[in-house]
Amino acid sequence: MADLRYGVVGLGSMGRHHVRNIRSLDGAELIAVADPFGDKFGVAGDTPLFTDVAQVIDAGVDAVVVAVPTSEHHAVAKQLIENGIHVLVEKPLAATIEEARELTGLVEEHGVVGAVGYVERCNPAIRAMREKIEEGLLGQIHQIATVRQSPFPARIKDVGVVKDLATHDLDLTAWVAKSEYQSISATTNNASGRDYEDFVSINGILANGVIVNHLVNWMSPYKERKTVVTGENGALVAETVLGDLTYYKNGIDEIEWDQISNFRGVSEGEVIRYAISKPEPLSVEHRAFRDAVVNGKPGIVTFAEGLRTMRVVEAALESANSNQTVLLEA
Description:
- The protein is an alpha/beta fold.
- The chain has helices spanning about 15-25, 55-60, 75-80, 95-110, 125-135, 160-175, 260-265, 280-295, 305-320; strands at about 5-10, 30-35, 50, 65, 85-90, 115, 140-150, 180-190, 200-205, 210-215, 225-230, 235-240, 245-250, 270-275, 325.
- The strands form two sheets. A nine-stranded mixed beta sheet has the order 14-13-12-11-7-10-9-8-15. A six-stranded parallel beta sheet has the order 3-2-1-4-5-6, with helices on both faces.
- A hairpin with a 4-residue loop joins strand 12 (about 235-240) and strand 13.
- Helix 3 runs parallel beside helix 4 (about 95-110), helix 4 (about 95-110) packs antiparallel against helix 9 and helix 5 runs parallel beside helix 6 (about 160-175).
- The longest helix has 20 residues, at about 305-320.
- The chain is globular and about 75 Å long.
- Pfam families: GFO_IDH_MocA, GFO_IDH_MocA_C3.
- This is Gfo/Idh/MocA family oxidoreductase.
């Protein structure tokens, strides 16, 4: 089979990395890139550089990565899908539920592959964590907590921290736990003076009874990405910046010092940092997308899944605005 003919629309902070990964992807040929503001990172090279998606379509592409601002996801992806082109859209799927719902229907109608770029699912620590949980390492899961904070990204102008960053945690938590959100409660704060929130604290309950907590902001002077899953046998901690996974096992030795025993609740046991393979997450995402296009192999985050996450995102924002817990439909 001939190489898939790829295009990339949007050559910003994410688009440039998509270009790099497509060029090193087996079975792929990058034949067109586009950005109305030009190639500010100088990644186009010998690849034809256009200004809009229509020109990319005319170049004869089979698949396109959409890495434009969130507010433009719907218009760009819709045009591609209606021309029978497979699409990988950066997260979140769209700016609104209505737009996400339309795109989800369009990929089904036109029979193309639609994937959403929730690249954290491809992080080696998160993937290994899910495998360990499936193996029963933790026993019954009680709680999932995430922290995602970093300096302010001046490039993000059309959404707040919930749609840009917290959406990762809402997606990966449901994926790791294999359960959807049942209810959600959120509080936001605006410190930068922009139109959108900069901080969010989210509490929720999954349909399987697991309680979840998410602390997210882009006003911290340092970068932190951590997911902690606590179960009856101990806790798994994924540090996704470096792709590390550590298991903190509940101890089995009796603690004779009553004061410490009463304070700890469970005793400290062995600590294991797993040696895991660490491919670049974006490379893993692109291989999954290619395989889905070529032979229908599962592994992508589908538009239907992206739509479900959008519903949770909107519920979090609704909760923050109303100061009430929001129940999600089953």
